[in-house]
From TrEMBL:
It comes from Paenibacillus radicis. Residues 152-305 form the AAA+ ATPase domain. Keywords: ATP-binding, Nucleotide-binding. Pfam families: Spore_III_AA. SMART domains: AAA. This is Stage III sporulation protein AA.
Amino acid sequence: MQSLLQLFSVPLRQRLATLPKHVMQELQEIRVRELRPLEIAWGRSYGFVSRQSGLCEDPAAAYLPTREDCAALLEMLTMHSLYTFEEELRRGYITVTGGHRVGLAGRTVLEHGKVKHLKDITGFNIRIAKEHRGAAVKVLPYLLDQQQEHRAIHHTLVVSPPQQGKTTLIRDLARIVSNGPAIREGSFMHRGYKVGIVDERSEIAACVKGVPRFELGPRTDVLDACPKAEGMMMLIRSMSPEVLIVDEIGRSEDAAAIHEAVHAGIRVIATAHGMDYTDVIKRPVLHEMLAEGVFSRIVVLGNRNGVGTLLGVYDAHGCPVLLKSELLTPAGSVQASWKEERGSPPPPVAIDWTGNHTLLQGQLLSKKQEPLC
């Protein structure tokens, strides 16, 4: 966090330094807008940074970043060379060391009807990247293909609105899948897998000069700052991954590359924006892929109990996926997780990590909660 604060001008840095400790620990966004209130988001809350110190609810009492504050921030983000960041300015964001993504707003310059770059940049959204080891522990058992001898990974699509833990989840999946039984979280896997990550926005791995700054496991290769579709094809041809991980798909060229990977026998884990399964199937490219059965697992995240809450896991037809009880025994992880989240130990027959009390040994106890399929 200290390295991130160094990007700001002294006035901004001084005011951010007065925020309460718990706010800084849960910080998710810093929104800097020229001559408008300095805003932050943490946990499930939003607030303004006071002109004096700490937080305030009244925007009239908030610090208003000056043109000098914004110009200094842009200079630091582009390392004093706007020219070398033309592509990032065209896309509207810059990723800095640590995997933090800075969204940009200003005046667009068009060329032949398409955005060439941004100018007069006066709005910045600094999204804080955080590594949460263990974030994928609850999800991974749903993704293991029990019909295969070695419990390979299902082709998986992770769905959630922005900032609900998609990138954090797939980052931790890469770590566990790459390690396999070498670490406790992968103890029920047969072996570790070669993992390839296409990190177009440098958020998954947070590479600095090609070296990941987040822990991704010993068998993981990263193609940094590369367009997703092209990057997937490059990894397929050159690095022979067994599991391919990519963030925020949705274009037709992404679908074509994923089809190539699937037909090559490579397992794919991808993310997409959406509220839930029904929301995703309204998007033409994703609807076509789901209709073809490309993804056999759809993981839905939200913030019901905090960012990254597992809301459900579904198969290709939108039916809820239930776990077999033998997957829930390693190291007492289910009991410990349940107790931590709910304050009491689970019943001995509870098998659903999402906390559905109606489940018993893979069967519904109440007809009122029948699956929709």
